[in-house]
């Protein structure tokens, strides 16, 4: 079987994602909010890091609102500068968001830094073995490695189902996902 490189898999999956209609994107965002298994994953009192969608990423804001209503404290990834490691800062309703680079926004330096218990993780591609391909910078792999030093965090890949690939060529530094959430359902090992 021919295995494609991460960059080829990333490019193909992102092409499929980019081709989705606005209607399909909205329906998928609403579906993931409904499909998150609150009966299996307790979020009350936990810190959950989400993300604001860039380019054609799935929009997790409806899901984040549902988790907030269920008692989660929300956070977003933050970069103090482009070379610093990714951290996480508290997301409060009505608080200003500032440019973080990479086309996204996050809470400013005045927002408290936190260590999430659960991370909704963006990705460009994933496989059935719960491996992910990010965007090539390793931000989530490094952040998860750092956070996992004090106890394994729950990393849930969130994407459109069309981003699934047959096999992700996993490397030793790649942190696998604990679950995957798409508009077609929630999967965990």
TrEMBL record:
Enzyme Commission code(s) on record: 6.3.3.2
Record's signal peptide: none
Cofactor: Mg(2+)
Binding site for ATP: 6-10, 132-140
Catalytic reaction equation(s): (6S)-5-formyl-5,6,7,8-tetrahydrofolate + ATP = (6R)-5,10-methenyltetrahydrofolate + ADP + phosphate
Protein name, per record: 5-formyltetrahydrofolate cyclo-ligase
Top-level taxon in the UniProt lineage: Bacteria
Record key words, sorted: ATP-binding, Ligase, Magnesium, Metal-binding, Nucleotide-binding
Entry annotated with the keyword Nucleotide-binding: yes
